[in-house]
Amino acid sequence: MKKSIIWISGLAISCSMLFSACKKETTPSRSELIAGTWSVNAYGQDDNMNGVLDDNEHDVIPAGAGLVITLRTDQSGVATLDSTGKSSVTKGFTWQLINNDRDIRVTVDNNVTIAHISKLTANELQGYGQDANPRLIVDLRK
Question: Looking at 5-109, which runs of residues are DSSP E strands?
Answer without folding.
Answer: 36-45, 66-71, 76-82, 88-98, 103-108
